[in-house]
Amino acid sequence: MNTNENVQKHSNKVSIWNKFLIFFIFEFFFSALTMPFLVFYGPFDNIKKIVVGASWNSFRTQYVSKMFLSDQAIARILGNGYAVDPSTAGEDLQILKLGQNHDDVIEVFNVDGGDYSGKLMIVHDPTRIVVGYSSQMPKAGETTSTIAKRNGAVAAINAGGFMDLAWAGTGGAPMGYIFSGGKLLYSQSKDENAKADTAAFTDKGMLIVGRHSISQLKKYGVKEGVSFGPPLIVNGKPTIKKGDGGWGIAPRTAMGQRADGAVLFLVIDGRRLGSLGATLRDVQDILLEYKAVNAVNLDGGSSTTMYFNGKVINKPSDVLGERSVPTTFMVMPSKKGGK
User: Fold this and answer.
1) How would residue 101 be classed by pLDDT, with cut points 50, 70 and 90?
2) Are 162 and 298 part of one and the same domain?
3) Residue where a domain terminates, one of 78, 103, 127
4) Residue 168, pLDDT above cutoff 60
5) CA 52 to CA 54: how far, in whole Å?
6) Mean pLDDT of the chain
7) Looking at the structure, do residues 112 and 191 belong to the same domain, yes or no?
8) Which of 24, 49, 78 is the last residue of a domain?
9) What is the extent of the structural domain holding 71?
C-alpha cells in the first residue's frame, strides 16, 4: 500500500468524524431550541404542569414561564391543581385536645417514593418545638445546623421563606412574620389584621395552619410560628384534591401534626440522581399516610434541610451544601432531662 493510499484512508476517517461532530452539534442546538416549545406548547400536559409549576413558584425562575406563556395561560395550566384552603371559605380549625402526657421519643424514618427519597421525623412532644432564627437577621441568614447548634437544639428543619434580594441567596429578609417565645419578633406587614399563610404552634403545642392574621394568632395563644404555606391538610382533610399542587417537582420541607399531638417533620431531597424531588401532592399523601390531621408546606428547594443529633441527615440540593435561611423549627432538649 503506497503512501497516497494511507493518506486517503486517513482523510476519509477524518471526514467521517467531522461529519459526525457536525451532526452532533446540529442535533444538540436543534434540541435546545425546540425543546422549550415542545414543553410549553406541546401535547404533554403533565410535563407542562410540572415545568410551569416548578418555574412559576420560584422568584428566581418565573421569567422562564413568562418567556413563553401569558399570565392567563399560566393560570389556566396551574389553576386546577392548587391546594384549596378551607379557612378562606370560613371553616375554623378544629381544636385538638392534646393533654400534657407526651413522652420524649423522637423517631426518624427513611422515605422512598421511587422517584424521590427523604426523611420523616416524629417528635412526640409538640411543646418542644420552637422557632429559631438567624442572629444576623435581617442582614443575612444562617444555615439550619448553625441556628440549631447555637440554640442547643436536638433537631431542626428549615422553616419560613425569605426575599432573595438581588438574587444573593443570603436568607436574611424573612417573608411574613415570626413568633418566638410568645412574642411577635418580626412582621413584614404593619397591618395585624391582614391574613397570611401560617405555620405556628400555640402555647399548648397545637399546630395552626391556613390563612390567619397576627391579631388572630395572638388570640389563639400562638407561641412559635412563621408565615408560609400552603396548608396541605386541614381538619384531617387534604387540600389538594386534584392535580399535583401546581408547584412542580422540587426538594420539599413540610410539617404536620397527628391527633395525639406528635409533630411530623418531613424533608424530600431533590435535583439529583435518585431523587428528583416531590410534588406538593406527594408530600400531602406522605403526611396523610403518617396520620397527620393538620399539615403545612414550608420553604423548600435549596433550603430543604433536616438536622438531628449534631449533623445534617438529608442531602441538601445546593452543590455548596446548606443554604442560609432566616428561620427554623427546632426541637429543644426534653424538659424531663433526656433528648
Assistant:
1) confident
2) yes
3) 78
4) no
5) 6
6) 84
7) yes
8) 78
9) 3-78
- Can you tell me the mean pLDDT for 74-98? 77
What confidence score (pLDDT) does residue 60 get? 53
Same domain, 128 and 174: yes
- Asked if residue 336 belongs to a domain, the reply is no
**Domain-located, residue 44:** yes
More confident position, 130 or 67: 130
Place of cell 403545642: 205
Tell me: pLDDT of 32 over 60. Answer: no
Same domain, 56 and 166: no
- 52-56, 104-108, 248-252, 314-318: range with lowest mean pLDDT: 52-56
Q: SS3 for the chain, per residue?
A: CCHHHHHHHHHHHHHHHHHHHHHHHHHHHHHHHHHHHHHHHCCCHHHHHHHHHHHHCCCCCHHHHHHHCCHHHHHHHHCCCCCCCHHHHCCCCCCCCCCCCCCCCEEEEEEECCCCEEEEEEECCHHHEEEEECCCCCCCCECHHHHHHHHCCCEEEECCCECCHHHCCCCCCECCEEEECCEEEEECCCCCCCEEEEEEEECCCCEEEEEEEHHHHHHHCEEEEECCCCEEEECCEECCCCCCCCCCCECEEEEEEECCCCEEEEEECCCECCECCECHHHHHHHHHHCCEEEEEEECCHHHCCEEECCEECCCCCCCCCCCCECEEEEECCCCCCCC
Judge whether 337 lies within some domain.
no
The answer to whether position 190 is within a domain reads: yes
Same domain (yes/no): 39, 148: no
Query: In this structure, are 150 and 298 located in the same domain?
Result: yes
- Structurally, the chain folds into a number of domains equal to 2
Residue 264 and residue 202 share a domain: yes
pTM of the model: 0.81
